[in-house]
Amino acid sequence: MSKAKDSVTETIKTVVYALLIAGLFRSLLFQPFFIPSSSMKSTLLVGDFLFVNKMSYGYSKYSCPFEFMCPFSGRILDSAPERGDVVVFQHPTQHRAFVKRLIGLPGDKIQMKSGVLYINGEEAKQTDAGTFSEVFEAQGRSGNTPRCSNAAVGFGGECVKESVTETFPDGHAHTILNIGPTRMDDTQVFTVPAKQYFFMGDNRDNSADSRIAQPMGVGFVPEEYLLGRVDRVIFSAKGKSLLFFWTWRWDRIFEEIV
């Protein structure tokens, strides 16, 4: 009987240690993140699997799986993010993780004019990058269908969006998508407060981001809500589960995020 009890005790201890190690790994190093929506196309696709680098910007209470595990205010080991980073952050009011591109740093003035981004009054130049094409079909676990520039598309048809390369005044370049005119193509001037950040999705016409105030959008994001930067796609599947091997996107494994 004592041997059986010892065996059970050792098993419980092993499970507890494993959970603690996993919790520390997730809290301090890398957190897994699965892309559920299309707001960052074509940089990130629905079904991309990433690891968030938790070391990139330091830590706050939101860096831990449970807030009681990080019982401090503000940030420790703090490092400032750079404009153009693709960042995972905790939504300040919806209590779930978002991934967007960092557009505005503290003190910046951000505005959209006719679909073109302006940072501190300087235009982020756009150059033609052709088109982004995908099959019009249910995508990912949610089963949502993509929005298209080429009007109504039947299931299995080609869904097309305009693709352009956007270059920030500091030289950082990345690809964004344009579906068509929307009310968010022209905005007020947003002045980013101290210790807060302004984010936008690369799929500009299909992204709830800092152009929309909370709670419906993201608004300005305080620095303590930043979870980390993502640098590469680790794995990708266009089906509802990573187990559906016939839906794997082999060309996206370990693809660098620009």
From TrEMBL:
It is a single-pass type II membrane protein. The keyword Cytoplasm does not apply. The chain crosses the membrane at residues 15-35. It holds the Pfam family Peptidase_S26. InterPro entries: LexA/Signal_pep-like_sf (IPR036286), Pept_S26A_signal_pept_1 (IPR000223), Pept_S26A_signal_pept_1_CS (IPR019758), Pept_S26A_signal_pept_1_Lys-AS (IPR019757), Pept_S26A_signal_pept_1_Ser-AS (IPR019756), Peptidase_S26 (IPR019533). It is found in: Membrane. NCBIfam families: sigpep_I_bact. This is Signal peptidase I. It comes from Pacificibacter maritimus.
